[in-house]
Structures are given as C-alpha cells and as structure tokens.
Design a protein that fits this description.
The complex is a heterodimer of chains A (about 525) and B (about 325). Chain A has about 525 residues and is α/β, with parallel strands linked by helices. Chain A contains 17 helices and 20 strands. Among the domains of chain A are: about 180 residues, 3-Layer(aba) Sandwich (Rossmann fold), CATH 3.40.50; about 170 residues, P-loop containing nucleotide triphosphate hydrolases (Rossmann fold, 3-Layer(aba) Sandwich), CATH 3.40.50.300. The longest helix of chain A is centred in the first third of the chain and has 19 residues. With about 325 residues, chain B is mainly alpha-helical. Helix content of chain B is about 70%, strand content about 0%. In chain B, strand 1 and strand 2 form a beta hairpin. Chain B is globular. At the A-B interface, helix 2, helix 3 and helix 4 of A face helix 8 and helix 9 of B.
Chain lengths: ~525, ~325
C-alpha cells in the first residue's frame, strides 16, 4: 500500500489552496445494471458541516463508501486536501484522516467499548498498554466534545446513542479530520439526536470537517453549512444552507417528473373495506417507525400515501399486509379485526380478501429462481384452482399462468422461463397479475412502478384504476409524487411516522405536497426535538 | 474403590482428554475466527498417520511430529482456500477432508508398509516416552499427595504437558494480545474488522495455521505418544467429540479444559465399566457401555449446556464488495 501519489496533475480549479478537505470529481459506480452514482462532483470545505440529502436509494451511501475505500469507483478522482489520492481500502482512508460512522454500526457487539475503539489501531502486540492509552485518550475526547462513554461497558448492553458515540470516538481516536456520518439520526431518539448535534457543533468548532448524510430536511436546516442534493444517482445541486429552505430541497429531492396522464372517472366510494386504528410499528432495530396511524379505505377508491422515502411507509405497509405484527393498534378488513398472533398474518389477510403487491418485488414478491408459472401461483398454491389434496395440478397452474400472461401482457410470453430473466416491469406484472386476478376486497400496492419502464407504468396504472372501478378498496404507497397525484382519490401525507395531512388531489400542487412531505407544515408535536438553526 | 484405583482412573482420564484438548483448541482458533472446522477429525487422522510413518522410517519421534504438523497444516490450508478464498461451504470442505484422510491414510500405509494400512510398531525411543518429573523418588514416600504427584502429574509424554500448557497460553493470546482481539472480532463481526483496516482473509489464514499445528500435535499424540503405531481410523470420532467439547465450553479455553477432562473421564470410566454386572439385568453388553460417552455427549449438549452462543459470523464466507 503505497502512499498517495503526489498531486502533480490536473488539480481541479480552486484546489491548490486546499480550501476543500474533500473533493470528488466525476465519480461513477455501477452495481450490475444499477448505476448508483452518475458522474458525481462534490466539494466539501474544511471546517464545515456539509449535508448530503436525498431519498433512500439516491446513491448517498454508495458515494461515501467510495470515499471511505469500501467500494472502488468505476471512474472519477478523489482529492483530499487538494491532493489526488486513490483510496484502495479503509485503512488508507483512515490514514488520510477520513473516518466514517456507518448507518449500521461497525462494532463488535460482545466487546467492551474500549476494545472496540482500539480494534485495528492497537499500539503493540500486547493489549494492556493500548487499552491504557485509549482509556486516557477517551477521557480527553469526552471532555472536549461531550462524547461521554463508559469504556468498560459491553457494547450490546448500551443504548444506540451510546454505541454511536463509540463509533465517533473510534474515528477520532484514529485521528480523523473528516468525519462522514451516514444517516446518523435514523436510530436515535430525539434527545439522543440533540446530543449528537451538540457533539457535531463542537467538532466543527475544533476545525473538523463533517459530511452528514440524511434524508431528513429538518436536520439539514438545523446543522449544516451547505447542502448537496442527490437524486437517483445524480448530484442535483449544491447550495448554501442559509440560501435555501426545506420546500426547495424537497422539490429538488423528489424532482419534477413528467406528469403522466391517467384517464380516470370520478370515484364512487362505497362502504369501508380497510380500517387502520392507532397503528404503532417498530422496525427490526426497535425504533418506532409508525406512530399511531388512523385511516380507512372505502370500496371503489384509491387512497395514496405520499411521503419522502423512509418516513415509515414501508413499515406501515408491512404491518397492514400482515408481514410484521404491530406493537399496538388494529387492522380491520371488511369489518373483521385481523389477529396478528403467530407468523402467518399475511396468509390470514389473504384469506380475508386482501391482496398485497409488495414494495420490493424481488425480495418479497417473487422467488426469482422459479419459473414464471410457479411465481404465478406462489402463496395460492394450496388453492383449489391448482389441485386438491397433496398434489399440484401443474397443467391447470400453467394454464392459469398462460392466461395471465396474455391478460397482463407479460413478455416474453413463456410461463416456463426463469423469473429472473424477465425485465423489472414484467416481473412487476407477474406479481400484479397474481395478486389482482382473484377474488379480493382490498388491494395494497407498494411502489407499483419502481424501476418499471414507461410503457409498463401506463399499463399498471390502468389496471389499478380498473380494479377501483370494479369496486375494490385500494391503498397505494409510493414515493413517486406524480403517481400518487394521478392515481389517488385521496392523498394522505406521511412524515416521521405520522399521517400529518389529508389532501384532495385536485388542489394538491407539488409545492404544497412538498411542504407537507418535508414536515414543514406539520403542527408542532413533542417529537419536534430538532432545534431550529 | 481404593485411592490408587481412583488415581489410575484419573490418570487414564488425562491421557484420553489430551487429544480432545489439542483438537478442541485447534477448533477454537478456527471457529473464533469465523471458520467452522468439522475437519478436525480428518486433520488429526492425517497427522497421526504422518507421525507414525515418518517416525517408523526415520526412527525419530521429533521428525514424526514435524511431519504430523506439516500434513495437518497443509490440510488446514486446503480448508482455508476452500472456505476463505473460494467462499465454499465450510461444512462440506471439512467433511471432504475427513473422507480424504480416512481413505488416503490406509492406501498410502498399505503401499508403503504392506501391512494392510497399519504402520510398523515403534520402539520406545522412536516415540514420545513418559517423562519423569523431578523429585518423583522423594515424593513416592509422601502419602496421598506424593502418590498423586507420581501417578497423576508425573510420567506423561511431552505432548500431554504441551496440551495442558496450551490452555493458559490460548487464554492469554485470546484476551490479552492484539492477535486475539482481532481474532475474536473476526468471528463476531468481520465487517467491523474490515472497516478498521484489517484484512479478514489474512487473519483467518493465520488462525487456520494455528489450527493446523494444534491438530498436528493431537494426531501425533495418538500414534507416537499414547500409541505406538497407526491403525486405520484410529481417531474414532475424537475430532467430533472435540468439537462437541468446544461448543459445550462455549468457545472458551478454560471451559474447554474442563469439558475435555469430563469427556476423558467418561471414556476412561467406560473402559473400567466393561464387564459390569447389573442386578437383575446381568452383564451389560460391551457395546452399550462403549456408547455411554457418546450418549452422554448428546445429553449434555442437548440439555445441560444452556444456550451456547457461537461466534456470530461463524460459517459465513466474508465477501468484500468492490
């Protein structure tokens, strides 16, 4: 591992005086077919807090992983303090003074705080002197930055906020001058987030540079000096935080997309089919993601849930469709309360007449190594349509699959083809066909057109509207604002785990919705812990 | 049962515990680094054969020991290649090594020594003989404690002392050195180690070298320490018992010492109980008594251990994305 080569060539303009701690120029990175970073430029001034904002999947974490040497960019240059470097691994990044606090902490859970801090940065082959030095250093750092930790506590037994402080200390102990924080508040309580912001301010005062990744606009306004907006792998714009406002940032994040024209008549709502009462859902980390949500969906209407990705929509979907059990609250389908006892909630909901098109078709909707016809009956394989008793009536199942291929225009029209070989749009149609082509009362659709080409989008939209006109109750969750606006008969806006507004799509322009989605129009609640700048 | 008989039983327990202890410690290094090692059995068997064959040819126990370590470490490196670089299934790689050793030792033994897979019997100076510790003569006159010293502590071969010394050394390495800290991190959360700038692959290789060396000692103990030649499948499942002892000990060196002594005691009790007559039943079949240690292993593992929490990343190949 050689030292970084001398910066003899092609410094970007303005770099010679090393005003910037970090500069990324023309970074590209693809994972298979996904172009996660497209020609990204980013300049971060020394001694500032620089925010990077964007929806989940916008490419923020990938970009920072490239800076930290966890991934290697396909092309592009990295400059640290004006010098061109090629960061090959984390050790190299650490030597250049770049430390990272990952979204999922990189801690060994059954180690003590002290052991975690010295791991990989031990002074000698024996631990005792290293531990002693780290203990002393920790005391100093704790005093300088209010980074209090208990050095002898075992990591898995301390709070998440405490663990995060250990991560920050790990970076500082290694002499980090640039600190990258990836979605640091995602797992924190409001009080812990406040504490974190105080720490960051002190770090800035001491001349450290901080790159702060988030999708929460309020945090950007509260803590950053400048902000870069990313969308779908591209760098949209970099602004001084003082010159912008959350509404503008929300618009940049979500983007003005070409409004798709969907023909639909007026809704004709009937009786209530789906009722959600006081629903509270925690994620795997134990963080409350849905904070007591109430709504209902009537027969013959489409209710859209809008929001910036990561505000609890996924967790809401998973609970309403029976994939996870909520902490509190009820889901009532056609007047019957659904029991979440046991782990077959999704199966019971299906029997109750609910169909679910999950957000992530490859992870939750399909077994991609199956042939198309197998996925076409997945979850309904014990249905009488596909044979009685133990044996599966394979010809009947395949005939059904062929019929659906025709009805939903799935291409290629071959029910024996492996599902992985279908394009994203056609895979989505396989799921839609399976879920819609049956007796049902309530249809739950998550991100129906994510990664789907234009032609398929139109078709999927018209199918959803046809279902509505057939008198089904439809709940639509999407981060695509246009999709929500053009399909929904009512729009509910979700922010920070709450449904904060109900909007009639007729009077919802993008700006109004954007303000709601950014949480700007939200009435003050006790969870408003993030201080104004 | 007389005091001497008890000492005799314990002495035999110690002898039977040693191969388990060495193999268990070998497994500890591997599994603490996150690599499952079901191939302890095969490595021991290969090492036992290499030790006996080399000692028979050269007449030197030390060369036998080197051959054992060499063969066992080479097998460990095959396992490393398969499970670290190739990201293969670690169980399958281990099982394959077990079968490889089982077949190869017999074929080579028959080809080289023409005795149907058994190696020539070694004389006492061609193997590791008992070592008399100092003051044995004086201690023999002291009642109780002296007898214990003479019978139980003194008079074992060098590998026995090495095995028992390896326990505190391993505990120290694991908990007091940089290598140990990284080793434990590697089995718990290799990504954390990687982001701290340490190569997970290289560390796992180092751990598996240690595993190879210790398995070599275990195999050599069987054929040129405790025994005087190699016979086919002479490990007889000890590698698996060692793995069970390791789990029973929750991957801790001192706990491993205790469980190995317990298993050694059960095995030695089994030998003593053969021919036992139970009232009303008559003579208990030898097979039932021989099965006793294994049955107890299953009972202990299933019922008494409580939750043995393995290293979290065990069995998973580490894949660094690029």
């Amino acid at each position: 591992m050689a030292n970084s080569p001398p910066a003899n060539d092609q410094r970007p303009s303005g770099a010679a005086d090393s005003e910037y701690a970090v500069e990324l120029v023309g970074i590209n990175k693809s994972f298979g077919a996904v172009h996660a970073n497209k020609n990204i430029d980013l300049k971060v001034k020394r001694g500032t807090v620089h925010g990077i904002v964007g929806e989940n999947g916008a490419g923020k974490s990938t970009l920072m992983s490239i800076l930290y040497g966890f991934y290697t960019a396909d092309s592009g240059d990295i400059f640290v303090n004006g010098e061109k470097v090629s960061i090959t691994d984390s050790r190299h990044a650490l030597r250049l003074g770049i430390g990272m606090v990952h979204q999922h902490f990189m801690l060994v859970e059954n180690f003590t705080v002290l052991e975690n801090i010295i791991l990989g940065a031990e002074d000698s082959a024996l631990l005792t002197p290293s531990l002693a030095r780290a203990r002393a250093e920790l005391a100093t750092l704790a005093k300088d930055y209010s980074l209090e930790v208990d050095p002898d506590a075992v990591v898995e037994e301390v709070s998440v906020g405490h663990q995060q402080r250990v991560e920050i200390l790990k970076a500082l102990y290694r002499g980090a001058e640039v600190l990258v924080l990836d979605e640091p508040t995602g797992v924190l309580t409001p009080a812990e987030a406040d504490h974190l912001f105080r720490i960051l301010e002190q770090l800035r005062e001491q001349g450290k540079t901080i790159i702060f990744i988030t999708h929460k606009l309020r945090e950007i306004m509260a803590i950053t000096d400048s902000v870069s907006v990313m969308r779908q792998g591209e760098m949209v714009r970099t602004l001084a935080t003082a010159d912008t406002d959350p509404a503008e940032l929300a618009e940049l994040m979500v983007g003005r997309r070409v409004l798709l024209q969907v023909k639909k008549g007026a809704a004709n709502p009937g009786e209530t089919r789906l009722e959600v009462r006081d629903l509270v859902v925690k994620d795997e980390m134990g963080v409350v993601r849905v904070k007591g949500v109430n709504f209902e969906v009537k027969a013959g209407e489409i209710v859209g849930i809008a929001g910036v990705a990561g505000n609890g929509q996924s967790e809401l979907l998973e609970a309403v469709s029976g994939m996870t059990a909520p902490v509190l609250g009820d889901v009532i389908v056609s007047g019957k309360r659904v029991s979440f006892h046991g782990d077959d909630g999704a199966g019971r909901l299906r029997k109750a007449g609910m169909a679910h098109v999950p957000e992530d078709r490859q992870r939750m909707g399909l077994v991609t190594s199956y042939e198309e016809w197998e996925n076409s009956i997945l979850g309904y394989e014990s249905d009488k349509r596909y044979g009685a008793g133990l044996s599966l009536d394979i010809p009947a199942a395949r005939n059904e699959a062929r019929r659906r291929i025709e009805k939903f225009d799935i291409r290629p029209a071959d029910c024996r083809l492996k599902t992985a070989k279908f394009s994203g749009g056609n895979q989505q149609k396989i799921v839609l066909a399976r879920e819609m082509d049956r007796e049902l009362e309530v249809l739950i659709v998550g991100q129906p057109t994510r990664g789907v080409d234009i032609g398929a989008i139109e078709f999927i939209h018209s199918q959803i509207i046809a279902m509505r006109d057939a008198g089904k109750a439809i709940l639509l969750v999407s981060v695509e604002l246009d999709e929500i606006r053009s399909l929904s008969d009512r729009i509910l806006v979700m922010f920070d785990g709450n449904l904060i507004a109900e909007v009639d799509p007729a009077d919802a322009d993008e700006r109004t919705l954007g303000l709601y989605m950014a949480g700007v129009e939200e009435p003050a609640t006790e969870s408003d812990a993030v201080a104004a700048p | 049962m007389s005091y001497t008989a008890i000492l005799f039983l314990l002495d035999s327990s110690v002898r039977l515990a040693v191969p388990l202890l060495l193999a268990g410690l070998a497994g500890l290094y591997s599994e603490r680094a996150g690599v499952v090692d079901i191939g302890l059995e095969g490595k021991m068997l290969g090492a036992a054969f290499a030790a006996a064959a080399a000692a028979a040819v050269t007449g030197s126990a030390w060369i036998g020991l080197l051959a054992a370590i060499g063969v066992s470490t080479a097998m460990s490196m095959i396992h490393a290649l398969a499970s670290i670089n190739m990201r293969g299934n670690q169980i399958i790689s281990g099982v394959a090594l077990n079968f490889l050793a089982l077949g190869t030792t017999i074929v080579l033994g028959d080809a080289w020594f023409k005795r149907g897979g058994i190696t020539p019997t070694l004389s006492l100076d061609q193997r590791f003989g008992p070592i008399e510790l100092p003051f044995v003569a004086e201690a023999a006159n002291v009642p109780i404690i002296g007898e214990l010293y003479v019978q139980l502590i003194s008079g074992h071969n060098i590998l026995v002392y090495v095995a028992f010394l390896a326990v505190p050394v391993t505990a120290w390495v694991l908990f007091k050195t940089r290598f140990g800290l990284r080793l434990r991190a590697c089995g718990e959360n290799p990504t954390a180690l990687d982001t701290a700038g340490i190569s997970v692959y290289f560390l796992r290789y180092k751990a598996l070298v240690v595993t190879g060396v210790l398995c070599g000692l275990a195999g050599a103990y069987l054929s040129i320490g405790q025994g005087a030649n190699f016979t086919d499948n002479m490990t007889a499942g000890r590698g698996f018992i060692a793995l069970a002892a390791l789990i029973f000990a929750k991957w801790r060196p001192w706990g491993l010492l205790n469980t190995c002594l317990l298993f050694g005691f059960l095995a030695s009790l089994q030998i003593r109980l053969q021919g036992l007559e139970l009232p009303g039943i008559g003579q208990v079949p030898v097979q039932a008594i021989q099965a006793l240690p294994y049955i107890l292993t299953v009972v202990l593992l299933a019922g008494l251990v409580g939750r043995a929490i393995p290293p979290k990343a065990i069995g998973q190949p580490y894949i660094k994305e690029r």
